[in-house]
Amino acid sequence: MPSSIFDQGLERNAANFAALSPLGFIEWAASVHPNHAAVVHGLDSRALRRTWAQVYARCRQLCDVLRRRGLGRGDTVAVMLANTPEMVEAHFGIPMAGCVLNAINTRLDAAAVAFMLDHGEAKLFIVDREFSAVAQAALAQLSRPIEVVDVDDPLYDGPGARLGAIEYEAWIAQGDRQARWSPPGDEWDAIALNYTSGTTGNPKGVVYHHRGAYTNAVSNILVWALPHHPVYLWTLPMFHCNGWCFPWTIAAMAGTHVCLRRVEPKLIFDLMREHGVTHYCGAPIVHSLLISAAPELRQGITQRVKAMVAAAAPPAAMIEGMDQMGFDLTHVYGLTEVYGPATVCAKQAAWADLDVGERAVKNGRQGVRYPLEEAVAVLDPETMQPVPHDGETIGEVMFRGNITMRGYLKNETATREAFKGGWFHSGDLAVVHPDGYLRIKDRSKDIIISGGENISSIEVEDVLYRHPAVMAVAVVARPDPRWGEAPCAFVELREGATVSQEDLLAHCRKHLAGFKMPKEVVFGPLPKTSTGKIQKFILRQQAKSAGAIDI
User: Fold this and answer.
1) What angle (nearest 5°) sits at the alpha carbon of residue 105, between those of residues 183 and 279?
2) Which has the closest alpha carbon to 133: 155, 117, 113?
3) pLDDT digits over 143-192, tens only?
4) Neighbours of 273 (CB within 10 A)
5) Which residues contact 264 (CB under 8 A, 6 or more apart)?
6) Which end of the chain is more exposed for a tag (fewer CB within 10 A), N or C?
7) What does the mean pLDDT of the chain come to?
8) Interior angle at CA 199, CA 195 and CA 200, nearest 5
9) Strand, coil or helix: what is 40?
10) Residue 322: left (phi > 0), alpha (psi -120 to 50), or beta?
């Protein structure tokens, strides 16, 4: 590239350039709003409360104690924690030392945890006592010792032994509350390691960089028009895509983290009422639980609460139920590889005048790119050309920009395949509407091929979700002697609701072509991950479908 007058004597230096990192947000919050509530854990007089100055000091202690143990740039620190104050601190104190945070799913079995500890080469393991049994079994499968630090949360009164030689509070007390720390020398440095939810074989380790965490944290502010001092309730596990980057987002706005060990409707409403919660995120099942809860549980909540839903499109019943509670719902979409949500169904003013059914159609789309993501497109995976914006032509959703992982740890082949053609290939199939909003039709592996026709499982699920008795639904393929495959619907009903297979099939006939109709409806609780995502691979196995093996 030829030089210009703007390349002469205008070099990058310490005065005019700094690596982007979300770690600076906590320093800003502590210096500008030192006495504002940063973390609340619990209810009434029993609640633990810390200001931003206090949390920042504790994060510096954590950083310092890690460095005193010789840990630094590129060293993995694994944590197995609930949504507690220690988890908030881990998102700052660990990367402040240059280390990489590996937040492990607390619902995994010992073999999966052992694989992650080994594959990520964890140097230290911070474990909440609630998860000590699985952690202990995982450690026993390793060929090398790992130092363990126990977290003994006063709000947890269940079983669980301590595994390490020291408890977290005594451990970080060894660190200096005024310890100096430095931002990363390179914004491309790893900040976090997150493992995909593998269902067969081993999961892949997704590596996040500081620049991506920064840009997605700021994008969260922009898409939600997040005000100063939001009060954010942690219904979404922080181990899931680092809580969609919200640990960093809330610091950037000097908000308040309201901690939550487990999703229970009464506790959620109590916390909302007492602490004035303004925002929370979750999978569809979380919002459905709140809608279905006894109305008296939410009495006294007068503030307008903003909720963010990911994964399945919110059905009309959910949008109507949220409206009745005074909650405003925003639909987002993403994957682990893009730091959680990376598209948003940005609402248009004209939608407010539509009836709930029409609004559900509009809000059910995955929408448009996050403001700081360079590009999201639906491309033909063979030609890599955009599909027509006709709402009909299916292509693969692909991402490009800062809010995309560095790649898969120790897996160059999978990384090259994921980034083929200069785009991240999501594996999700979608169409683009004339207004530019995309709508997911299915995962490539979830398309049902019946008699040579492609059936979107999501389309069938959307119809079933419209029935007032349905709490959750998943549609998978089952073998069919005539058509090869046919849809099979697994349905979880709302508490107290009753409905027959015939009733649901009659409902489907009003909205679906004959070949898209489920051939069977199976009632019962649906298997879900800890984030509320329905585990279709288990249902495929139950249905003995041709696609029962998940990749």
Assistant:
1) 70
2) 113
3) 999 999 999 999 999 999 999 999 999 999 999 999 999 999 999 999 99
4) 17
5) none
6) N
7) 91
8) 110
9) strand
10) alpha
Q: For residue 279, what are the β-bridge partners?
A: 232, 306
pLDDT top residue among 324 and 502: 502
470-480 and 407-408 strand pairing = unpaired
Contacting residues for 527 by C-beta, under 8 A, at least 6 apart: 534, 535, 538, 539
Task: Give the whole-angstrom CA distance, residue 508 versus residue 253.
Answer: 45
Distances (CA, A) of 80 to 86, 209, 521: 10, 21, 37
Instruction: Determine the average pLDDT of the residues in 418-425.
Output: 96
Q: What is the pTM of this model?
A: 0.84
Q: How far apart are CA 475 and CA 458, in angstroms?
A: 7
What angle is formed at CA 414 by the lines to CA 409 and CA 416, rounded to 5 degrees? 100
Strand-pairing partners, residue 260, are 83
d(CA 326, CA 310): 19
Residue identified by tokens 């909302």 is 272
- By residue count, the chain amounts to 551
Name, in order, each residue with C-beta under 8 angstroms of 266's C-beta and a sequence gap of 6 or more.
293, 297
**305-309 and 256-258: which strand pairing?**
unpaired
For residue 29, pLDDT beyond 90: yes
> How are beta strands 76-80 and 231-233 bridged, if at all?
unpaired
DSSP 8-class letter at 445: G
Residue with tokens 């139950």: 542
pLDDT tens per residue, range 265-294: 999 999 999 999 999 998 887 898 899 899
Has residue 104 got a pLDDT over 60? Answer: yes
Amino acid identity for residue 361 in this structure? V
Comparing C-alpha atoms, which of 64, 63, 56 is closest to residue 30?
Answer: 56
Beta bridge partners of residue 127, listed in sequence order:
80, 150
In angstroms, the Cα distances linking 43 to 48, 200, 255, 272, 383 are 8, 41, 18, 10, 56
Taking Cα atoms as reference points, which of 254, 281, 248 lies closest to residue 37?
Answer: 254
H/E stretch holding 327: strand 327-335
> Pairing state of beta strands 438-443 and 424-432?
antiparallel
Cα(148)–Cα(260) distance, integer angstroms = 23
Q: Are 309 and 327 in contact (CB under 8 A)?
A: no
Cα(166)–Cα(80) distance, rounded to whole angstroms? 16
Q: How many helices (H) and strands (E) does the chain have?
A: 17, 26
Q: Are 171 and 148 in contact (CB under 8 A)?
A: no
The upper half-sphere exposure of residue 404, i.e. CA atoms within 13 Å in the direction of its Cβ, equals: 19
| Chain centroid to CA 70 | 32
**Structural tokens at position 92:** 């700052």
Give residue-wise pLDDT tens across range 509-530.
998 878 789 999 999 999 886 5
Q: How far apart are CA 409 and CA 119, in angstroms?
A: 8
Q: Could you give the C-alpha distances from 442 to 227, 312, 314, 446, 474, in angstroms and in order?
A: 34, 10, 15, 6, 12
Q: Are 84 and 235 in contact (CB under 8 A)?
A: no
DSSP structure class, residue 396: E
C-alpha 180: how far from chain center:
31
